[in-house]
Amino acid sequence: MLRCRRRYPVPAPSGSEALAGDFNRVWHDAGIRLLSGRGPALYCVADQPLQAATHDPEDILDRHMKVTCPPAPPHRAAAAHE
């Protein structure tokens, strides 16, 4: 069983609703929205399927998660270094 070494704060239900509302106002035309569930749960809903890569957590245990991230597209990578 894999256990997290660090606990992250979970928003209260009212905080989840506020976060979802703010997210949806900012990203209203992006084809993605955030829904507040029961309690502090948040759900991300996209208008179209999203491609995602996953890795077995045990393969990256004790390593920075950046090693699992795909490289940025060239135009974004160049802009990040300016």
Polypeptide structure, described:
It is a single chain. The chain is extended and about 35 Å long. The protein has a two-stranded antiparallel sheet with strand order 1-2. Helix content is 26%, strand content 12%. The chain is α+β, with helices and mostly antiparallel strands. 2% of the residues are buried. It starts with 12 loop residues before the first helix and ends with a helix. Strand 1 (32-36) and strand 2 form a beta hairpin.
What global shape is seen? extended
Taken in chain order, the helices and strands follow as HEEH
Number of helices: 2
CA-CA gap between termini: 42 Å
Average pLDDT confidence is 77
List strands and helices in order, with pairings.
Blueprint: H1 13-26, E1 32-36, E2 42-46, H2 74-80
Describe this structure in a few short sentences.
The protein has 82 residues and is of the alpha+beta class. It contains two helices and two strands; from the N terminus they run αββα.
Question: What structural keywords apply?
Answer:
12% strand
